[in-house]
Amino acid sequence: MLDDFMVRAALAGVGVAAAAAPLGCFVVWRRMAYFGDATAHAALLGVALALAFDGPIMLGVLAISLLVAIMVSTLSGRGLAEDTLLGVLAHTMLALGLLAVSLMSGVRMDLMAYLIGDILAVSKSDVALIWAGAAGVIGLLIWRWQALLSVTLSPDLATASGINARREQLILTLALAVVVAVAIKVVGALLISALLIIPAAAARPLARTPETMALLAACIGVFSALGGLNAAFRWDTQTGPTIVSIAAAVFVLTTLVGIVRNRA
């Protein structure tokens, strides 16, 4: 079955969407959209370093994503606003990644495949790594759900209840780094944050509880991945942007449903 490239692409898309969309709920709730964007932009430097040292792409992306998370956690609040720091890191890492790519004369690299994704080129090992990472993120979210939710709703109250808010923040950034690493081949560095944010934002008008929103976001993410893959195959378009466009269309639809419901 895995010899069919469309089956591999579908499995990769479902794996990434199932992990990214529920995690994206925390990104939306905590207003961390810029953090996801910065981590995704930094991923290109991880790709360049992995190719330069002939290592696994996902490992290189994961290492750089974790480095960005640690730098933000360490430097924020020390004279720089977090959004300023994220802006500096995002564009610096992206520039360094592009510079590293231009200097690698002996390494062949399809830059567009890492910028906007190339889901049709995923291998069996890529699918296995994507599902391993996705299972890890989903398991982490289930395990730490109540603690993460408490810190998101009220950090002070969570701390008073004995929850280490800084530890939960670190867990969340670790999960984000893993999602960026596994999503790089599916939607690319420029569109990863869209797959995190849009399904979660689309689920918000339809959900009454955080758990419902996470489940709906996962369903919307999976629908967007499969729908985008099918549309791209039929119309010969770039798969990553098509997946995000499907998610955006669902967001518009659910937003209109929410507006109508509120007026009723």
Shape: globular
Q: What is the chain-wise order of helices and strands? A: HHHHHHHHHHH
The total of beta strands comes to 0
CATH class assignment: Mainly Alpha
Task: Name the helicity range.
Answer: over 70%
Give the amount of beta strand, in percent.
under 5%
Largest sheet: none
Label the CATH architecture.
Orthogonal Bundle
Count of domain modules? 1
Output the CATH topology.
Answer: ABC transporter involved in vitamin B12 uptake, BtuC
Put simply, the count of helices is 11
The average pLDDT value, as a whole number, equals 86
What is the straight-line distance between the termini? 48 Å
CATH superfamily assignment? Answer: ABC transporter involved in vitamin B12 uptake, BtuC
Radius of gyration, taken over Cα atoms and rounded to an integer in Å: 18 Å
Describe the model:
The structure is a single chain. By secondary structure, the protein is mainly alpha-helical. It has helices at residues 5-29, 33-52, 57-75, 82-103, 111-116, 124-153, 155-160, 165-183, 192-203, 210-235, 239-263. It is built from eleven helices and no strands. The termini are far apart. The mean pLDDT is 86.
